[in-house]
Amino acid sequence: MAGRGPLDKEFFTEYGEASQYQILEVVGKGSYGVVGSAIDSRTGERVAIKKINDVFEHVSDATRILREIKLLRLLRHPDIVEIKHIMLPPSRREFRDIYVVFELMESDLHQVIKANDDLTPEHYQFFLYQLLRSLKYIHSANVFHRDLKPKNILANADCKLKICDFGLARVSFNDAPSAIFWTDYVATRWYRAPELCGSFFSKYTPGIDIWSIGCIFAEMLAGKPLFPGKNVVHQLDLMTDFLGTPPPESIAKIRNEKARRYLSSMRKKPPVPFAHKFPDANPLALRLLERLLAFDPKDRPTAEEALADPYFHGLANMDREPSTQPISKLEFEFERRKVGKDDVRELIYREILEYHPQMLHEYLRGADQTSFMYPSGVDRFKRQFAHLEEHHGQGDRSSPLLRQHASLPRERICAALDEAADQSGSDNRSAASIALTTLQGPPNSQDGHATTAGNSSNKPNYSARSLLKSASISASKCVVVKKKVDSEEGSIAEHQDETVDGLQCKMNALNA
Q1: Does 95 share its domain with 209?
Q2: For residue 196, what pLDDT is reported?
Q3: Carries keyword Kinase (predicted)?
Q4: 347 and 66 Cβ atoms separated by less than 8 Å
Q5: Which DSSP string corresponds to 335-387?
Q6: Does 250 lie in the same domain as 347?
Q7: Of these residues, 147, 158, 209, 309, which one is catalytic?
Q8: What is the CATH number of the domain that holds 164?
Q9: Are residues 179 and 257 in the same domain?
Q10: 411-427 pLDDT, tens digit each
């Protein structure tokens, strides 16, 4: 992590961090600001730097950003995206923008699913394993993500997945289900558990994330969303068309009166056998999927129970599936009281200091930090971002657009449309084989950083036989980066008119 070492003094006495990074291109742009890919000149590593504009214009947005950077600091796991650094602002009291340095990931699971019609059963199993492994860790911290969907799962060409966008996550501080206010935009409807459909005030449990993972897994198997509801009623219709009408005792648990009355008056529907819906899927995969998509949350397995399912026989390993301690109430005291703009600014500044140990030490000693202003090292950095924002979408960039999605907050990034058409010959890029990243067990392991076609030649080539058989879960020639235009039907609003800049997956057949 930047800022930890003998060069601390140089970092902290002036805003020299900006000159440490060379911005390469814009990879996302939205109302919050812009995300650029960059090179860390000290390490040579490619990173994603997110500039968040006018953080404190709306206290609710600032609180969401605070919640996310705090959770990503506390939740360290190979399957959760990592914040590598947050730049120290020029002024403690007056800063408006923040720069967050993330590990760079190449794409997201939405793009992977859309761009590939030849994913193998081994891909499905390995993807689901990583998602459940990360959920086990997240839930052991008493955190509920609440907005799991393919676009919030980053992906690399080596089949590595990482969950991102914790802006809607919540921490539960007791064993009982907590009451929480839900609005229609919380948790994208297609992946929202039935007990939350139409609810404005509902009890929630870890089962809401388990349901979302089930929907994502079904989308992998089918190549399209399982329940693409146009509204709450349509969402419930699609669920019951497939799963059948739920029993009265399950309907009674839905707190929204209209939704409860609608389900109660619904004609009796028999469930559709999962094997009919997914005829080519592994029967063990379907049995687990049926457990994940149980209508009643009490019938869904925990992430730990799901990892013990026979579907993961030979792959699951407790040493690679760590848990963690519950998060302290003190970390999220701001959630329990009304905070103003200055309060959130101070709390975000305090979080930023976690990446600047020397400044944190001075801060905790009570030294006056109100008057420092750093030199103009940030000016060049701001100019680079301004250039990216001004010329984004006009073809004026030094290298092709790699992807259009990033995290924190994910859904605010506006995907650049029709970029693929500007890249002559881009579809003819040679395929680069990339070895599957070894998964490390300890939560603080540095695992799964971005791998690009440009450096893939330095990666070792493992035998495809090793997938699922090796203790380190290694394989060769897993996936490659390739542009492909989205041809999905335009009638589904959430997937309309998107240019797919995904991964072209090719998996060697496993030898017996």
Answers
A1: no
A2: 79
A3: yes
A4: yes
A5: GGS---HHHHHHHHHHHHHTT-HHHHHHHHTT---SS----THHHHHHHHHHH
A6: no
A7: 147
A8: 1.10.510.10
A9: yes
A10: 333 333 343 334 434 34
Domain assignment present for 154: yes
CB 172 within 8 A of CB 149: no
Q: What's the rounded mean pLDDT across residues 495-511?
A: 37
Return phi, psi of residue 211, to 5°.
-60, -45
Q: What is the pLDDT of residues 307-325, one digit of tens each?
A: 999 999 999 898 899 999 9
For residue 365, how many other CB atoms are within 10 A of its CB?
7
User: Is 29 annotated among the ligand-binding residues?
Assistant: no
pLDDT at 256: 75
Residues 190, 68 within the same domain: no
CATH code for the domain in which residue 46 is found: 3.30.200.20
Q: How many domains does the chain have?
A: 2
- 109-154, pLDDT tens digit by residue? 999 999 988 889 999 999 999 999 999 999 999 999 999 999 999 9
> Which tokens in the block code for residue 323?
């848990």
Is the same domain home to 197 and 343? no
Q: How many helices (H) and strands (E) does the chain have?
A: 14, 15
Q: 11: number of CA atoms within 13 Å, CB side?
A: 23
Same structural domain, 154 and 287 = yes
Q: Which domain holds residue 41?
A: 17-105+337-388
**Tokens standing for residue 352:** 């930023």
| 258 and 123 inside one domain | yes
Q: Is the pTM of this model over 0.90?
A: no
Average pLDDT over residues 449-463: 36
Q: Report how far apart, in Å, the C-alpha atoms of 23 and of each of 27, 38, 448 are.
A: 11, 4, 22
Cis previous bond, 409, omega within 30: yes
Contacts 24+ apart (CB under 8 A), 272-280: 272/241, 272/242, 272/243, 272/244, 277/222, 277/242, 278/218, 278/221, 278/222
Q: Is residue 11 part of a domain?
A: no
Residue 183 pLDDT greater than 70, yes or no:
no
Q: Over 90: is that where the pLDDT of 240 sits?
A: yes
Active-site residue flag, 497: no
Residue-wise pLDDT tens digits, 185-194: 455 789 999 8
Would 476 be classed as within a structural domain? no
Which two tokens mark 82?
């990592």
> Average model confidence (pLDDT) for the chain?
74
Task: Assess whether pLDDT exceeds 90 at residue 222.
Answer: yes
What whole-number distance in Å separates Cα of residue 347 and Cα of residue 70?
Answer: 10
Same domain membership, residue 28 and residue 148:
no
Q: Which residues of 201-216 are buried (b: 16+ CB within 10 A; e: fewer)?
A: ebbbbbbbbbbbbbbb
